[in-house]
Specification:
With about 270 residues, the protein is α+β, with helices and mostly antiparallel strands. The protein has helices at about 5-15, 20-30, 35-75; strands at about 80-90, 105-110, 115-120, 125-145, 160-165, 180-185, 200, 205, 210-215, 220-230, 230-235, 235-240, 250-255, 260-265.
């Protein structure tokens, strides 16, 4: 009498190989008399379905692990503080194929964590399949502590860290020091995420602005006033007309409307 349990175990062992279902069926059916083929076909179909489900589960797990590893590496590269991830494979091929060896998984589209695509490759069987992954990523990131106007130079007190869910990892920053001295191209409300892409070096001195000229020499500090003849960011060297002497000097921008002289370039007419 046909031992169904032996047949199922045999079919399952074949299903994880690189054989096609048709070749597998022929191989097993050749071992039994024709009168038992209908029974064998039913059992074989059940075993193959179980094997395919296991293959799908295994590959889905590989894809989920690869997605988590990718997000973790990206968060580390971008310097995000205390990142957290929730990953779910939401789209997979209708018919998962078996693979005799572990599949390799490569990212295909990872711009937005809420909808990413990864490709699973089986070199042993020569197939590739695309999986859709949904992830939720949060981290401690820099947000505005107070109202910030567009173009306003940002200081340390304007910022704080809060946990936020991120639409894109590329947009966020976790180090307030990298934001100080910058300006946002758009206004920010208190608690709003400081978007990396909207930042630019702040203009600390504008042309025509009244500035303080601070000269330091061997512990002695002397200050005077002047008028900027050029606009400048931090560490830019600009022209400044000294209000007391009328001379235009070259001065390095050190803060908001503050400069230090680096040399005299011309005398008054």
């Amino acid at each position: 009498m046909l031992d169904a349990r032996i047949l199922v175990r045999s079919a399952r062992s074949f299903s994880v190989s690189a054989w096609t279902p048709r070749a597998l069926s022929k191989s097993i059916l050749m071992r039994f008399p024709p009168t038992t083929k209908s029974v064998i076909n039913s059992l074989l179909a059940a075993a193959l379905a179980t094997g395919m489900a296991a293959a799908r589960a295994d590959t889905t797990g590989d894809v989920a692990r690869a997605a988590r590893q990718f997000l973790s590496a990206e968060a580390a590269r971008l310097g995000l503080v205390e990142p957290q991830f929730a990953v779910e494979v939401v789209g997979s091929p209708p018919k998962a194929q078996p693979c005799a060896r572990p599949v390799s998984v490569e990212p295909a589209d990872t711009q937005f964590p809420s909808r990413m695509r990864f490709v699973a490759n089986c070199t042993a069987a020569g197939w590739s399949e695309t999986y859709t992954v949904r992830a939720e990523v949060s981290a401690q990131v820099v947000v505005a502590a107070s109202q910030l106007n567009s173009g306003q130079p940002i200081v340390a007190d304007d910022l704080r860290l809060e946990r936020r869910t991120l639409v894109s990892l590329q947009d966020a920053l976790s180090d307030p020091a990298t934001v100080v001295g910058m300006a946002s191209r758009r206004a920010l409300r208190p608690g709003q995420l400081v978007d990396r892409r909207a930042l630019a070096p702040a203009v600390l001195v504008r042309r025509g602005a009244s500035v303080t000229i601070v000269a330091r020499n061997q512990g002695i500090l002397v200050s005077s006033t002047g008028e900027a003849t050029e606009a400048g960011h931090r560490d830019d060297v600009i022209g400044v007309r000294n209000s007391a002497t009328g001379r235009v000097i070259r001065a390095r921008v050190t803060g908001v409307n503050e400069v230090e002289p680096v040399g005299i370039v011309q005398s008054p007419d």
